[in-house]
TrEMBL record:
UniProt KW Calcium keyword: no
One Pfam family from the record: Radical_SAM
SUPFAM superfamilies in UniProt: Radical SAM enzymes
MF terms in GO: catalytic activity; iron-sulfur cluster binding; metal ion binding
Keywords per UniProt: Iron, Iron-sulfur, Metal-binding
Protein name listed in UniProt: Radical SAM protein
Keyword Iron: yes
Length: 357
């Protein structure tokens, strides 16, 4: 990889056109040359935090092959910059690009705790696990500043409501006090995403995420404090991290994880162009090989929206990956299981305290 040819600290290396917009813009070579001669920056590469005001915060998940029924996202867009992230496409609904905009235009939902509390107090609401980060990471760098996720966890604890978290950031340990309190009543489950044991791969695949070492330490710390952890080996990308399935499973099990889950990468919507551009700049020696192997897992396409096959793929390479995951579960997770979250307490705490009568 030539570091001079890439945008430092970002996954995407371009802003692809928004499919909902008739017009688009591009950086012309003559403009870049003008900036170079005048010693000016053509792109300041800064992150902007933009407050938005949604009317609701919890979304019902309709997809039949996603293991969640409800999700909530305190932030839209994600500064982690994971190049493969399926959530990139959702940024187009907000009027931005799925490319660099997704990493640099972060939408902040400061009202999320209030909206969540309003929902949990409704007489018609029945307890069901709500997943934080069904779309974008609730412990991304913005959480350091705004602490919206922590405030939401306080609401879940107050109303004794089950919550599940998906993250790849060690910042979750900041809220260990709340997580331990939730765990006492079996109201919390954590899904830590770990896609590689290689820091070199992590840096270019997930540029602003927590290091692998810290993520493993986080799994261990959570487990030692009685908080159940599932590790997401997701996505598995052929010829990038597919050879690490067994070593990854072994290490995360040794650090206390109770289970693993996986998906095979699929590059829907704008992500296909973003990923293809990225890999040709960062891994030119294997770009075509990786892209062709991804296609072989999805009926000859980079994208795949077919329920039932899109997550785990099809064909020989997908079969090999799925078999390795089965082998890893049998070898390193025998006798381990993630507990089901407690749905029974919330009804008694609808008003934020135990009902006596």
């Amino acid at each position: 990889m030539n570091p001079k040819s890439t945008i430092k600290g970002r996954g995407a290396q371009l802003n692809v056109p928004n499919r909902f917009f008739e017009l688009s813009y591009e950086m012309r070579d003559d403009f870049l040359e003008f900036c170079h001669k005048d010693g000016e920056e053509s792109d300041k590469n800064k992150t902007l935090y933009l407050e938005v005001f949604p009317k609701t915060i919890v979304n019902k998940v309709e997809s039949p092959d996603i293991g969640m029924a409800y999700s909530m996202n305190p932030y839209q867009g994600c500064e982690h910059g994971c190049i493969y992230c399926y959530a990139r496409n959702s940024h187009e609904y907000w009027g931005y690009s799925a490319g660099l905009d997704f990493e640099r235009r972060i939408l902040i939902k400061k009202d999320a705790p209030k909206l969540l509390e309003t929902l949990l107090k409704k007489k018609t609401w029945k307890a069901h696990p709500i997943v934080m980060s069904g779309n974008t990471d609730c412990y991304q760098p913005a959480e350091n500043t705004f602490e919206i996720t922590r405030q939401c966890l306080e609401v879940f604890l107050k109303y004794k409501h089950p919550v599940s978290i998906i993250t790849k950031n060690a910042l979750i340990l900041r809220d260990l006090d709340l997580l331990k309190a939730l765990a006492k009543d079996n109201l919390i489950g954590v899904n830590m995403s770990i896609t590689s044991l290689s820091e070199d791969i992590r840096r270019i695949l997930e540029p602003r995420t927590t290091t692998i070492k810290k993520r493993l330490e986080t799994v261990k710390m959570l487990s030692e404090n009685g908080i159940p952890v599932n590790v997401m080996l997701a996505p598995i990308i052929p010829s990038i991290n597919s050879h690490e399935i067994l070593p990854l499973a072994k290490v995360v099990s040794e650090h206390g994880a109770l289970s693993i889950a996986h998906t095979i990468v699929r590059l829907n919507g704008a992500i296909g162009e973003i990923f293809s551009d990225w890999i040709k700049k960062t891994m030119p020696d294997r770009a075509d090989k990786v892209l062709h192997q991804i296609e072989s897992c999805h009926g000859g396409n980079l994208n795949d929206s077919r329920y039932g096959t899109r997550m785990h793929g099809e064909g020989k390479i997908a079969e090999q990956i799925n078999n390795l995951v089965k082998m890893a579960r049998h070898k390193y997770f025998k006798g381990k299981v993630m507990p089901k979250l407690n749905l029974d307490l919330h009804e008694q705490f609808k008003e934020g305290q135990l009902k006596l009568f």
